[in-house]
Amino acid sequence: MKTKIHVTVIGAGAVGVAAAVSILHGRVASRLTLFDVVADKARGEALDLAHAAPLFGGATIEGGGHDDIHGGDLCIVTAGAKQRPGEDRLSLLARNEKALDDITEALERHPLPRVVLVVTNPVDVMTEAMRRRLAPKGVRVLGSGTLLDTLRLRHALSGLLAISPESIHASVVGEHGDSSVCLLDSGRAGGLPLADAFRAKGIALDDELRRTLAANVRGAAYQIIARKGATSHAIGVAVARITRAIVADERVVLPVSAPIDDATCAGIPCVLGEDGASPLALTSLSVREQAEVEQSLSILKQRCAELRSA
Fold first, then answer.
1. pLDDT tens digits, residue range 261-295?
2. Which domains does the chain possess?
């Protein structure tokens, strides 16, 4: 891992701060800067975190307003309107496209970061919006994609199968949202196909269980928002994991948002390293999975076509 890495986080709300805390705990960055439209909010959060710097390996921690924005080595964008109770992520498109336009303009006033990681929802569409602006200038843009959805699926499968989630290899792809696709037919647990792992527990991986698992994954954010107002902890840890993979050039495969064609980004398994995300082809899908993936990608293509830069 490189010893001098500057990570910037744009947006000092619940998600941005959770990501910053996880990154600092992981000692991924030697310098971390928080930015927010409310400058004192970012400066206050940074000062609070800076008091723990001796326990974070002596990282330099700073804060500033939107007028101070610069990209560092890797820039994480979490700013924007959050989901309201009962609101789906795609409903945020109109509100957050303008916010990301302003952030992109601020970034362009300074030397650009090498990599931008978008977390703002709807993350796949927002990733595409920033990619169109920054990729021609040599910036690698990716989004947090379906990594959090995948963690939620593996957590649910672990509980049903009584197997550590680390031994479960089943991903969620497509939209980070209501059309996300749980790849259960091609998933494995403890080296076995998921259907066989369930059968060994006396459980049938039938349509009802499939619907239940998909509903749990897609509905997790709604449950959290209804109870505490916003998701933060798990996405913060997921963002830190992606950041570490990029900074350390790990070449690990994680499902993040990346281009599937010239005009659309979606959650897809990617090799993560210092140059960002390199998408892998979705292969060995069942007929059912292929149909669901095509439907999810169709929705994202339609919404990406609505971007003002389309």
1. 999 999 999 999 999 999 999 988 999 999 999 99
2. 6-143 (3.40.50.720), 147-304 (3.90.110.10)
Longest Cα–Cα distance of the chain, Å, equals 60
State the sign of the Cα–Cα–Cα–Cα dihedral 268, 269, 273, 275: negative
Cα 164 from Cα 247, distance rounded (Å): 27
- The whole-number pLDDT of residue 73 equals 96
Cα dihedral 89, 109, 142, 265, rounded to 10, equals 60
Residue 176 bears catalytic tag: yes
pLDDT band at 253 (very low <50, low <70, confident <90, very high): very high
Question: What are the tens digits of pLDDT across the range 53-95?
Answer: 999 999 999 999 999 999 999 999 999 866 666 666 667 777 7
Catalytic entry in 51, 110, 176, 233: 176
Nearest to 215 by CA among 182, 263, 175: 182
Residue 141 near residue 133 (C-beta atoms within 8 A): no
Tell me how long the chain is. Answer: 310
Report residue 289 as tokens. Answer: 């999975």
Whole-number Cα distances in Å, 42 to 17, 30, 45, 61, 87: 9, 18, 5, 11, 27
Contact 176, 124 (CB under 8 A): yes
Amino acid at 243: T
